[in-house]
Write a structure and sequence with these properties.
The complex is a heterodimer. By secondary structure, chain A is of the alpha+beta class. In chain A, 44% of the residues lie in helices and 13% in strands. Chain A has three domains: 19-117, no CATH class; 130-260, no CATH class; 275-443, no CATH class. Chain A is built from 15 helices and twelve strands. In chain A, the strands form three sheets. Chain A has a five-stranded antiparallel sheet, with helices on both faces. Chain A has a five-stranded antiparallel sheet with strand order 6-7-9-10-8, sandwiched between helices. The termini of chain A are far apart. Chain B is an all-alpha fold. Chain B has one domain (8-366): Amino acid/polyamine transporter I, CATH 1.20.1740.10. Chain B is 76% helix and 0% strand. Chain B has helices spanning 3-6, 10-21, 25-37, 41-65, 71-79, 81-113, 120-135, 139-149, 151-161, 180-193, 199-203, 211-239, 242-245, 251-257, 267-297, 303-317, 320-323, 326-355, 360-366. The chains are: A alpha+beta, B mainly alpha. Chain B: It is a multi-pass membrane protein.
């Protein structure tokens, strides 16, 4: 390859008689990473304009400058078209082209503008998502680049029914956002509804899918998350194939899945990577964890404060003994411990790993031992709070885990005011809310409320894959049949 | 309102009915039955189920003649607008009074068994607020919630069944000692404990499915409740001797109180927590029914608003026993008695519609703007 050095000096004739150039020049007036280069070839002035921070210099050199300036020339339209250029008349399009990593070439004498695209490749390599690890199964994750994410999905689903629709969100940031679904499996009505809701977004920036989520979810005042956030392409793919819709935005590795139900938050890719009996066990364990996480501290408070007679009499003395010396009411004790644990958790997130461990040890020692020997908190409260904390983190989804941790506070207060009656009413409120909530027309607590017996196959249990011949109805899929008889070989044995 | 939004399936209809029926009465049912029929009370319960099936059939005939109309619309068609409105008003009063009866009885039980020192109005306020929260958003939410909590009934049955190991079957023998006349009369009390099926009168047209499917759901609900009640009555009768049961107003709770498991000492507290769910569902239904009926009379006020108003009225009524403790007894003796008028009124309507050969088509012509 011939050597070619990119000139650094700005040697543009300010009086170039080129109509679009003046507009572009005005638009990028004060930014210093805007670059212009002027060359002459065969009596034509070639004027290149681009943002050097967005463009890949290598590519620009190799695919545009060298062929145009050093090699043989076929004549202007042919040569430029063969280099993937596009003739553009609209100056606004030129500006947005430059902003998307393009390079504008003005042919001054002909008064034409051509747009080339050499975007810089700015992305980290594909890694396993830290907060959604699995034991078995694929270890790749989404990255910040939208195209890479979509190609990860496309590589998994090689079907022309895989549809992508782009939207530009954010008046200033123009964040490219993709709505992805499987035609013929997903319900087009929901796709339309999603696009309708997206079209109302008129904020100036879209920071993350969290923004989109807040703008389009059904009930923004509910504690329960109504869209799943995932960084796992395999999870996204499985949901696409069940007829759900994925939204991915440029600049964030998180995909949104909708419509979802409560129970979807308790499913993990791991469930499908191991065999069905252990998966069922683990899934049941997660639902038990949900119940423990929201009710256990409240239950304990109710017993200690009101119904000590409920526990077996062998336990009463030890329990009473551990509570006896504590000066605070059980609710205060529980709040103190819960908040300490939340503090340790929050501190642990942002600290570098070695310090995080230190905090863990200090916190663990303080909570586990010192607090009890200081006589602030009872022994059993430690057990209860620790069990609750662990249970809350069993949920595979971070959003739902936060929700679970938050719900238990009102329940604790109710239990401390009215004992079991308070706890019962607290649960009544939670369950009514779950019955009321809908996500894009899907009842949030289905298949339990409304009861959908056939969907229970993949809710509490994880039935064998060859039993799940149908897609779940709660994705509102239009194509319910998933497979015929994948274990048909059993019936037709070879002689 | 969007019609589709309010429709429930006939499977949900089943749960709606049984959850409305199961309520405060369950706890004292064996006591009531023993008071009137002695150890043959369970036969009366079976008989009541049978009688009820007849009543349900009458309802079914009525709804067959007037498709997609509820009882109030039919009353308007049969007796004219003015009387129709009067009937609506009476039904509102009825639903409100049953709602407040449930509230008062529930408060009394909670007060006696769980929270003796808590003021009654706090306990009532909780139920009322939860009831509002449930019933403002329409029948669909009610149906979903009721389906969700129905497994608790199984838990109740299991808890009660555990006591069978100490039962004495001879307590209910000889069968039929009370005499057929007493058994028949006693079935009246059993019917009262099954109140709640009136929800059919208003919600029948809000259920999707053929008439046949709906009637099947209704009949299964009746069968379920009859068998469940009979079972509970029999269990209490063979657990307690006839002498004991006379002094135990809530036999089911006493059964559980006498049992201890290794993990939980006072089973009755667990049972009561479940029972609160059941009471709550009945209360929610009546609040919803009152508001639903009310929207026929005050059609300018939204359902949501009416729920608030009626809940407030019911809450107000729940204060009356504070002034005079006798009031509970008045309520619990008079309200169920008057309820006979309201559950039998549809059969009168059926007779009228037969006599005057009125059915949907005939009435449309007379009353085109209804």
């Amino acid at each position: 390859m011939k050597k070619f050095r990119l000139p650094t000096s700005n040697s543009v004739n300010k009086e170039v008689p080129c109509s679009g150039y003046q507009i572009i020049k005005a638009a990028f007036q004060h930014t210093e990473d805007f670059k212009e280069l002027e060359f002459k070839r065969d009596n034509t002035t070639l004027l290149f304009c681009f943002l050097e921070t967005l463009i890949s210099e290598e590519k620009l050199k190799e695919y545009l400058l060298i062929p145009l300036l050093l090699e043989d020339f076929k004549g202007i339209p042919d040569e430029l078209e063969s280099l993937n250029g596009k003739k553009v008349d609209n100056p606004d399009k030129l500006i947005s082209g430059i902003l998307n990593g393009g390079n504008v070439l003005f042919l001054c004498e002909r008064d034409e503008a051509w747009l080339f695209s050499f975007p810089k490749d700015l992305q980290r390599s594909i890694q396993e998502p830290v907060n959604e690890g699995v034991v078995r199964g694929p270890h790749d994750g989404f990255v910040e680049n939208l195209d890479t994410n979509i190609s990860q999905l496309r590589l998994r689903i090689k079907s022309p029914e895989f549809k992508v629709k782009y939207h530009e969100l954010g008046d200033k940031t123009k964040t490219k956002t993709a709505v992805i679904y499987m035609k013929g499996i997903a319900d087009e009505k929901i796709v339309k509804e999603v696009e309708r809701r997206l079209s109302y977004i008129s904020t100036d920036m879209i920071l993350s899918p969290g923004y989109i989520e807040e703008f389009i979810e059904d009930d923004p005042f509910s504690l329960f998350p109504q869209l799943i956030n995932t960084e796992r392409p395999d999870r996204a793919m499985a949901n696409l194939m069940e007829g759900r819709i994925i939204i991915i935005g440029e600049g964030s590795p998180t995909a949104l899945i909708l419509p979802v139900t409560f129970f979807a938050f308790y499913q993990s890719s791991d469930d499908y990577n191991s065999r069905w009996i252990p998966s069922t066990f683990i899934r049941m364990l997660r639902y038990v964890s949900f119940l423990i996480a929201i009710t256990l501290p409240a239950f304990y408070i109710a017993i200690i404060a009101y119904h000590l007679e409920v526990i077996p009499h062998e336990l009463i003395l030890p329990l009473k003994g551990s509570v006896e010396g504590i000066p605070y009411p059980p609710l205060l004790e529980a709040f103190f411990m819960e908040i300490t644990i939340e503090l340790i958790r929050e501190a642990g997130i942002r600290l570098p790993k070695p310090i995080g461990q230190t905090i863990g040890i200090v916190g663990g020692l303080v909570i586990g031992d010192a607090v009890v020997s200081a006589g602030l908190i009872s022994n059993i409260m430690i057990v209860i709070v620790a069990l609750t904390a662990i249970s809350a983190f069993v949920v595979p989804s971070n959003e739902m885990s936060t929700t679970v941790r938050l719900i238990r506070f009102p329940l604790m207060i109710m239990a401390s005011i009215l004992g079991f009656v308070g706890l019962t009413f607290g649960l009544i409120f939670v369950f009514i809310k779950l019955c009321k909530l809908e996500s894009f027309g899907v009842p949030y607590f289905s298949p339990l409320a409304p009861l959908q017996v056939r969907d229970l196959k993949d809710t509490f249990l994880r039935m064998p894959l060859w039993k799940m011949d149908e897609r779940p109805r709660n994705s509102l899929t239009v194509n319910i049949k998933r497979q015929r008889d994948s274990r048909g070989w059993k019936k037709n044995e070879p002689r | 309102m969007n019609r589709d939004k309010e429709m429930i399936t006939y499977q949900q209809f089943f749960f709606l009915i049984i959850q409305t029926q199961l309520g405060v009465g369950v706890l004292s049912l064996p006591y009531v039955m023993h008071n009137s029929v002695h150890s043959d009370g369970w036969i009366s319960v079976l008989l009541a189920g049978l009688l009820l099936q007849g009543v349900l059939f009458v309802y079914f005939m009525l709804f067959k003649r007037f498709k997609s109309r509820n009882i109030l619309d039919i009353a308007g068609l049969l007796f004219g607008k003015k009387i129709g409105k009067l009937i609506t008003l009476f039904y509102i009063l009825y639903f409100i009074s049953v709602g407040s009866l449930i509230l008062v009885l529930y408060a009394r039980i909670v007060d006696r068994w769980i929270l003796p020192h808590t003021p009654n109005w706090v306990i009532c306020a909780l139920l009322v607020v939860a009831g509002i929260y449930l019933s403002v958003d329409g029948l669909k939410i009610l149906a979903r919630f009721y389906t969700l909590v129905t497994p608790l009934v199984i838990l109740v049955v299991l808890l009660v069944s555990y006591t069978l190991k100490d039962a004495n079957i001879y307590y209910i023998f000889p069968i039929g000692q009370a005499g057929i006349k007493n058994i028949v009369i006693g079935s009246k009390d059993a019917v009262l404990s099954m109140l709640g099926f009136e929800i059919i009168l208003l919600t029948f047209p809000m259920v999707s499915g053929t008439n046949r499917q709906k009637f099947k759901a209704v009949s299964f609900a009746n069968l379920f409740i009859t068998i469940l009640y009979t079972y509970l009555v029999v269990v209490s009768f063979i657990y307690f001797s006839p002498e004991e049961i006379k002094i135990l107003p809530e036999p089911l709770l006493y059964i559980l109180k006498s049992y201890t498991f290794k993990i939980i000492e006072r089973t009755d507290l667990l049972f009561l927590s479940i029972w609160i769910f059941l009471v709550f569902t009945s209360f929610g239904s009546y609040l919803f029914l009152a508001a639903k009926t009310g929207s026929k009379l005050f059609y300018k006020i939204k359902h949501r608003r009416l729920v608030y108003y009626f809940a407030f009225i019911i809450f107000g009524i729940s204060f009356l026993p504070e002034f005079d403790i006798q009031f509970i007894d008045y309520m619990s003796s008079y309200i169920p008695k008057t309820s006979f008028i309201f559950i039998l009124f549809p059969s009168f309507m059926l007779i009228v519609s037969f006599l005057f050969k009125k059915s949907e088509q005939g009435c449309e012509a007379n009353d085109s703007n209804s």
